[in-house]
Each structure stands twice: as structure tokens, then as C-alpha cells.
Design brief:
Organism (chains A, B): Streptomyces rectiviolaceus
Oligomer: homodimer
Helix content of chain A: under 10%
Protein name (chains A, B): Sulfite oxidase
Number of domains of chain A: 2
Strand order of the largest sheet of chain A: 14-15-22-21-17-18
Cofactor (chains A, B): Mo-molybdopterin
Pfam families (chains A, B): Mo-co_dimer, Oxidored_molyb
InterPro entries (chains A, B): Ig_E-set (IPR014756), MoCF_OxRdtse_dimer (IPR005066), Mopterin_OxRdtase_euk (IPR008335), OxRdtase_Mopterin-bd_dom (IPR000572), OxRdtase_Mopterin-bd_sf (IPR036374)
Radius of gyration of chain A: 22 Å
CATH superfamily of the largest domain in chain A: Oxidoreductase, molybdopterin-binding domain
């Protein structure tokens, strides 16, 4: 008999066998969902089309002009449920935030054994200027019951659940993409309708998305259509099953939240097409890059040219006015003939630092293992 | 002794062993150079950021404003060598062409055994409106020696060689990306400085690129900085070594030129995150997509719901005013419960049709094997 259940086409997460090459399924995800080409770290704000993209299901079609056009609904434990059009949202006082966003799965494909999912190396990052309405403004307009003062109240709202328009199946569970945030929400959380001064591109969430500065990308719900204020913690798939740090399948795990620190080097010199080994001349080589953390400013970037045996401090630019944007760093390396591995390591003000050994977990999240760039000097 | 030659980091092309999974090198290329998410086939003109991208080396930095700013140089067998600024090019009479562009390596990773290079599946395509100056206009201004009438003249120019600003190593050969076209050039070949009404994005060739409608992407030299008119055929790496259809390494091969026909289906229903199997309900399902060929209009698109055993004709929109843009097609499929494989096949006016068996060649070029979309109907 023909098997026709979702479970036949949508299987649980798995970890690849030792030495197992990347599968066609993983390749298809890599081809759809792209990273930032590392030379593009040179731009303070990532040009359109170069910012990393992750779409779990498909980019949905959203109609903002027809008779049944898109509205943002705000409901649940609120005094005044709302149905806001794009024009109404745009009419509210707006804020622009420069935010560095990273996918929680960045680094996953460098883990051994490799969790089989979106196979990022180090490039799942981007920085954009997001314009929109502070979420707090809209929640205040709706009048969240008992959330404003953060008081503990068994009858009051404890979380806001955000539903996107993208629909699909994942690990056997049919769903709309949905995530929650605890109340009260940070002042910096935005309902964003513009990216780098223009309307959101389709792949970045048109017409509206959540932006949660300092958190990994899964929190920044795209194609946002509904906010529901709930009096119980949300336990949907993307909150309780996915995006958890686990060692074994039965482990409830710890939730993925803020972005762990990372520094990336703009690969110096010029590359080999296939291997991406960098070619430089002997002598002084300017090394530059970016560093960021969701926990606080990056206070130290160390660079090694001997694959981690010795380190020197780079100069790190202060955060400046953009609290949530990456910080530039630079140093000079004197290259000598031969093969070298450049490594960079960020530390933030809270003392979090990048590991030199892989921080393995079953979902492949938060792998901020130091980047390693192979260089040939001749 | 430490090996420090380019040949150690930049090895010849190879073909993967049977059953060999995708390597980390191939994955790195997939993460940098992305394809069109197939749901985005719904847009007549591909939104910025969704058009496929291939960058052989790095996106170069090009300065168009400083004292030593970028110029397009036109030299070699011309009467009047030129150095044109972006402003001068923009001042010439402009043309806009809607062009469907595809990477010559599209389909490569579906070949068995798999040539090891940029590992495309079917998504390396995009359609854009390119604005610029016809190449013929600039060549006429420079006064190509003996090319205008196409006369055979041993002393005259026979080709135009196009040099980009991107520099790297490929299969052991250090180079600027460089390709040629035979003279006389087609009237439709453009020196394009705008894409979809705006300046070229960095990854699409800012400030100027060649657009050769109907040819695969390797011909559309990006970050164009020089045109040289030569009296001997160009035999550089990207012309004589890469982009050749070969069966064995020593085969001189046939050059890759015009785009072979292809139809793509917008995957129906909704997807499973990992497997990309599509889920649909029983009953009528609208199937839509795009089809194109560099040899002429697509005259037939056939659709099979039983993995190629039986076929029906879809309705194909005519080419219309956009001679080089893809054509829309559609049909209705009556889905019944169970697993199905949808396949689509294009045929053009010249009689070229997509193969049902893989057209293997060592470089993995022009693999226009029919797309196969797995569907679960429940």
C-alpha cells in the first residue's frame, strides 16, 4: 500500500554518520538559503542580496493592496484587539535600528558529527538598518493585560506569540512558523517594515517582520501576520522542539536566545576558486573584519597566524551609536613564505569568548567555534 | 620543505567517486553563490537578492569616484582607443533588455558521477531588466578595424576580449576573469550599468557588466574594466580550459555558448523543510512555471505526473516583447492520494528538447536534464 503520511516525507532530525558527505537535501537548502560572501564583511551595512537568508518553508505571497489585504492582528490577552494595515503601522512614530543578525545554525556544518539540517559554515550573518514601530508601542495600544509592569499575575499575559505567513512541515509537524517572546519585551524590539530604507524584500519578510536585536535569527519572525498575548508559555515546535541546545534526543534542552560572540576575518589577498585558500605576498598584510555579540559589546579580538598557538590583540572599534551592530577590528600581520592558518577570536564585555574546540550539540546551534582561514604566502 | 606553490592549493578539476557526498569545499561555494528559491519563479522579474549569483573569486572593490576612478578602456585593434567613465557611458543612448540568465553549471550536482565544482541543482537562474549601452555603439565609437562588415581580413580584429576586475586562481592558473566574443557582436549585447532600474549591485558586477542575451552566464563578464579587440582568437583559461563540453580531460571539447532549453515548475502546495517534498490536497492543482532557451522561443512544455511515463501539454505564453526573457506556462493536474513525481520538459523552436537521461560531461555543463519534483497528496 502506498504510504501517504507526512511522517514518510518529513522525518525526525538526525546526525550524519562519521565521514558522511553532505547530502543532496542539505545541498538544496544551501542553494536556497545563502550566506554572506565573506568579502562583503567590508560593508558596514550589508548590500541587498548579500545579507544571509533563511526561509524554512517558502517565501509566501502576501497581498497588501486587495480587498482582503494583509493586516497585522493583535489579540489574546489584550483590552483592545487590533487589525493594523501597513499604512497604519507606517503612520506610527518610527525607529531605525542597525542590527547584526545571525542564524542560530551558523557553524552547524563544521560540527563533527554533523547535525543534518541547513548546513552553514560561518557565513550566516548580515547587518541591516531596520525601520519600524517599536513593538512596545503596538502592545501599549492594544493594552496588554498585566504585562506593562512585569507583575507576576496568574491571569495576566506572560508571552507574546508571533505567527508568520510561511506554512510547511518540519520533522513531521505541519505548522505556520511561530515563535514567542517573554513579556515585558525589550524597548529595542521592532515591528520592521523597511530594510536599508526600502520596503522589506520578499525573502526578508515583506510586509512586516519582527526584529529582536541581540537574538539569533529564529526570533525575528518574518511575514508577520498575528501577535497573540498568552497567559501560558508557548510550547510550539519552533520554541520547544527546535532551537534547543541538547546533547541527546530526549533532552528537553536549553532554549537558544542571544547571539554568542563571533569575530570574522575578511579573507585577505585573493582566493583559489575551489579551495578558497587565500594567496598573499610576503610582508605586511592588513587583516580586518567584524565582531559581534548579543550579550554586550565586544571588548577583545585576538588574531593568530599559527592556528592558535600564539595570539595578538587586534584594534577593536567601539560600538558607537549602533548598539546592536557589529564592530570593526583590524591588525597587521607580517606574512612569511609558506602555508598559514589565520584564526580570530572575539570576547565580549560579559566574558563570553569563542571556543577553540567545537561546542557540539545535537541541533547544531550556536557553534561559534573560531573561524580558520587557510593562507598561502608566496 | 613547506610547499608554497599555487598548484598545491589550486588543483585540477576532478570528478567525485561514486557515492561520494558533497565536500566542504563544494558546500562553501554553495553558501557563497546562491540560486533562485524556486517559489520566486512566480515573479516576472526576479526581485533583488533572489537572482542567482556566481562569483568565481571575490566581489572586487571598484572605485568610481576617486581621482584614479574606474574607467572602461577599449583598445587593441581599434582606430581610437577609449577610456570611458561611468558618466560618459550613461550619457550614451540607452537600451533596456529583459534577459533570463542561467549558469552554465546549472544541474551539475545532479550528474553521476559528479564533477566537483560549484554544485548547482536546478536553481541557477534569474531574470532581470538590464539597462546599458549596446556594445556595438561603443565599438563603433572606437572604430574597430575591419570588423564592421564582418569581412574576412587577416589583419583585422576577429574577437573582443572582456576583462573583469575579479582576480584569483583557478585550477592552478592565476588570472583576471576574462572571456571573449567573436565579431561581429549581436545587436542585443549590452554594456549594462543598471539592473531593475538601479545601479548594479556589487555581486552583479558594479559598475558595469556585459550582458549577452541567450548565452550562459560565463559570457556576461562582470566588473568589466577593459575590452580589447584582437586579431587572433582568445585562448585564455575561461575560454579554452573552462566552459568546454568534454568527455575526458585531454579532449579539447566544444565551447559552451547558448542556453539549452529548460522548464522549471514552481513547486506546488507547501514543502517539508528538509526533504522539500511538496504536500498537496487531492483534486485540481494549478501547475505553473517558466521556460526558456537561448536558441529561440520555447514552443512546447510537457508535464508528467507519473515520472515521465505519460505527458500532457501545458499552455505556454508567447515570448511577447521580451525576446530574451523566460516564458510562463501553466496547466492543471488532478492530484490523487499518494506519492507522485512531477516532471516538466521544454522544447524550443529549433527542436532542442530537454533530455530524460543525464547528458554527462566532465565539466558538468549544460545539464538540462528534466526537473523532478516529489509530491505527497493527502
Amino acid at each position: 500500500m502506498e504510504r501517504t503520511s507526512l511522517g514518510d516525507v518529513s522525518t525526525p532530525g538526525r546526525v550524519a554518520a562519521a565521514g558522511e558527505g553532505i547530502s543532496e537535501e542539505e545541498l538544496a537548502l544551501a542553494a536556497r538559503n545563502h550566506g554572506l560572501p565573506l568579502e562583503a564583511l567590508r560593508y558596514d551595512v550589508t548590500p541587498l542580496g548579500l545579507h544571509y537568508v533563511l526561509v524554512h518553508y517558502d517565501i509566501p505571497v502576501v497581498d497588501t493592496v486587495g480587498a482582503d489585504a494583509w493586516r497585522l492582528s493583535v489579540g489574546g490577552r489584550v483590552r483592545t484587539p487590533l487589525e493594523l494595515s501597513l499604512a497604519e503601522l507606517r503612520a506610527l512614530p518610527a525607529v531605525t535600528q542597525r542590527v547584526t543578525m545571525e542564524c542560530a545554525g551558523n557553524g552547524r556544518a563544521r560540527l563533527s558529527p554533523r547535525p543534518v539540517s541547513q548546513p552553514w559554515l560561518v557565513e550566516a550573518v548580515g547587518t541591516a538598518d531596520w525601520t519600524g514601530v517599536p513593538l512596545r508601542t503596538v502592545l501599549a495600544e492594544a493594552g496588554v493585560e498585566n504585562a506593562a509592569d512585569g507583575a507576576d499575575d496568574a491571569d495576566g499575559a506572560v508571552e507574546a506569540v508571533f505567527t508568520g505567513a510561511d506554512h510547511g512541515v518540519e520533522r513531521g509537524v505541519e505548522q505556520d512558523y511561530r515563535r514567542s517572546l517573554p513579556l515585558p519585551v525589550d524597548a529595542d524590539v521592532l515591528l520592521a517594515y523597511a530594510m536599508n530604507g526600502g520596503p522589506l524584500p520578499p525573502q526578508h519578510g515583506y510586509p512586516l517582520r519582527l526584529v529582536v536585536p541581540g537574538w539569533y535569527g529564529m526570533a525575528h519572525v518574518k511575514w508577520l501576520r498575528a501577535i497573540e498575548l498568552t497567559d501560558t508559555p508557548f510550547t510550539g515546535f519552533q520554541q520547544a522542539v527546535a532551537y534547543r541546545i541538547r546533547q541527546s534526543p530526549d533532552d528537553p534542552g536549553e532554549p537558544v536566545t542571544r547571539i554568542a560572540p563571533r569575530a570574522l576575518l575578511i579573507p585577505p589577498g585573493f582566493p583559489d576558486f575551489m579551495s578558497r585558500v587565500r594567496v598573499v605576498r610576503p610582508g605586511p598584510v592588513e587583516l580586518e573584519g567584524r565582531a559581534w555579540s548579543g550579550y554586550g559589546p565586544v571588548t577583545r579580538v585576538e588574531v593568530s597566524a599559527d592556528d592558535g598557538r600564539s595570539w595578538t590583540d587586534a584594534e577593536v572599534a567601539p560600538r558607537g551609536p549602533h548598539r546592536w551592530g557589529w564592530q570593526a577590528w583590524h591588525t597587521t600581520w607580517t606574512a612569511t613564505a609558506g602555508r598559514h592558518t589565520l584564526t580570530v577570536r572575539a570576547t565580549d564585555a560579559d566574558g563570553h569568548t569563542q571556543p577553540l574546540e567545537q561546542p557540539w550539540n545535537r541541533g547544531g546551534f550556536e557553534n561559534n567555534l573560531v573561524q580558520r582561514v587557510p593562507v598561502l604566502c608566496r
